[in-house]
Amino acid sequence: MSAKVDGTELEIARLWSRRPVITAGGRELPKDELGHYQLRDRRGVRTVTTTFDWRQFGPRLRVGDTDVLLGRPIPGWVRVAYLVLLVVGVGLGGALGGLVAVASAMGSAALLRREDRPASIVVAAALVPLAGVVVYLGLATALAR
């Protein structure tokens, strides 16, 4: 994924890992002594981090005091549907249901956040929570024996 911050194009690789790689102009940004990326530009030296925004169900890039949502924003009704999925998952399935619900909501949101979003991606994003229900039922049945 990429984001433009104050005229600087930043590329983020391995976004979902614990340590994503952030590059500008094809070169990895330098890190400080704590291992945080540093962006040096006309505004000075600013720390660059990635976080997960639970309100948008997606990754967010923070450069100094500036926040940039990576990818497309997700419509409000879809976020409400994810919230219902999480509440039902925890309410009916306990911890295991909650874990499966969180995983399926994040996977579906990642599909919907793509820049190229043809109808097949939207259908796949709708099928991910259904696959989560099947996985939950399979795991719950296996653990109940």
Description of the structure:
- The protein folds into two domains: 2-69, no CATH class; 76-144.
- The protein is built from two helices and eight strands, in the order ββββββββαα.
- The protein has helices at 76-112, 119-144, and strands at 2-5, 8-13, 21-24, 27-28, 37-41, 44-53, 58-63, 66-69.
- α1 packs across α2 (119-144).
- The mean pLDDT is 84.
Briefly say what this structure is:
Keywords: Membrane, Transmembrane, Transmembrane helix. By secondary structure, this protein is α+β, with helices and mostly antiparallel strands.
Give the topology, please.
Layout: E1 2-5, E2 8-13, E3 21-24, E4 27-28, E5 37-41, E6 44-53, E7 58-63, E8 66-69, H1 76-112, H2 119-144
Antiparallel strand pairs: 1-2, 2-3, 3-4, 5-6, 6-7, 7-8
